[in-house]
Amino acid sequence: MTKTKKRLKIIGVVSLVVILVALFVPLPLYSETPGEADDLKSYIKVDGKKPKVDGQYMITAVYLSQVNGIGAIIAALNPTASLMTSREANGGSSATESKEINRIYMDSAVNEAKVNAYKAAQVPYKRTFNGIYVMSVQDTSNFKKYLKVGDTVTAVDQKKFDSAQGFQKYIRARKVGTKLTITYKHKKQVKQATGKSVALEGTKKLPGMGIGLTDSVAVSSPRKISADMGEIGGPSGGLMFALEMYDSLANENLANGRKIAGTGTIDKAGHVGEIGGIDKKVIVAHEAGAKIFFAPYIKPTKQNLKYELDGQTNYQQAVKTAKKYAPNMKIVPVKTFNDALTYLRDN
């Protein structure tokens, strides 16, 4: 064999190895595809029992999976799939942190759904603010070596507050660089740490601990509601949780034998917020037999469309997807929990 042939053979082998590696080694890419639509009776209990609902309220979900070269090609050829970077999929967090963040979001969604259901059904309840969940820690934070995603900050300088805004107002009343002593819980252990406030990410002068946060609350009532969501995470089930819980508590047949799907975050005041992957959720809702799909609604303006995925609001995406994949399913725009209640009563 000549030197030229040997060289070509080596190049060929190396090229084959590179191609195989590229095809089969996991890439920093994720594929988002339609997941499933599940009856919430499988996850929620009211008064310790399966909810008595004449019909189905369905939570819709997407599948998010890391892909290799072959998976990326398959996703690119699938019109119902979306490819995204690791940062887009996990928000710059590690896979472990992302899982914890989604657990926190789910916990918050369940609790705020309880608030709305109890309130609408006129059932007495108590909403207790426990502190602020740590959702992220910026690199410049002086508490970075102490706080981890999932920890709960319960006090600053021995002072407790009744909302995240209370913490923020206290810290922002002082200059960047002010010494703060925080009390926090890490894996059920109460700890303290001292450090100086920093300018929050994206600002020059706004002081803070240098963390992303959300409320940590607990909701209790004589009518006990529990939810075991298993591996499902994220905040997007809030609206549907509230509907399932309310229909179980109230003397009203709201579902009336129908299969009802939807998505959207919910806060304690009942506002419904936008989410990701609504196009995939419309598809799985249709496949599960839903005839009604609630979609978060905000008025499309030039300003907010700049920040929307593909330049469309959740509602616009849902309508567009339904026309192609679910022409017989009604897409219902909702701004609030009460909008959804009103629609089901009137239709």
Description of the molecule:
This protein is α+β, with helices and mostly antiparallel strands. It has helices at about 5-25, 70-75, 85-90, 95-120, 165-170, 240-250, 280-285, 300-305, 315-325, 335-345; strands at about 30-40, 45, 55-65, 80-85, 125-135, 150-155, 180-185, 190-195, 200, 205-210, 210-220, 225, 260, 265, 270-275, 290-295, 330-335. It has a 6-stranded mixed beta sheet with strand order 4-1-3-13-16-17, sandwiched between helices. Strands 8-7-6-5-11 form a 5-stranded antiparallel beta sheet. Helix 4 (about 95-120) runs parallel beside helix 6 and helix 7 (about 280-285) packs parallel to helix 9. The radius of gyration is 24 Å and the shape is globular. The mean pLDDT is about 90.
The chain-level structural class is alpha+beta
What is the string of helix and strand elements?
Answer: HEEEHEHHEEHEEEEEEHEEEHEHHEH
* Morphology: globular
Q: In percent terms, what proportion of residues is strand?
A: 25-35%
Question: Could you give the distance between the termini?
Answer: 81 Å
Specify the helix fraction band: 25-40%
Strand arrangement, largest sheet? 4-1-3-13-16-17
The biggest beta sheet reads: 6 strands, mixed
Alpha-carbon Rg, integer: 24 Å
Short key terms for the protein model shown above:
10 helices, 6-stranded mixed beta sheet, alpha+beta, single chain
Protein topology:
Layout: H1 3-24, E1 29-39, E2 44-46, E3 56-66, H2 69-77, E4 82-85, H3 86-90, H4 95-120, E5 126-137, E6 152-156, H5 164-172, E7 179-186, E8 189-196, E9 198-199, E10 207-208, E11 211-220, E12 225-227, H6 238-249, E13 259-262, E14 265-266, E15 272-273, H7 278-287, E16 292-296, H8 302-305, H9 314-325, E17 330-334, H10 337-346
Parallel strand pairs: 3-13, 13-16, 16-17
Antiparallel strand pairs: 1-3, 1-4, 2-12, 5-6, 5-11, 6-7, 7-8, 9-10, 14-15
Helix pairs in contact: 4-6, 7-9
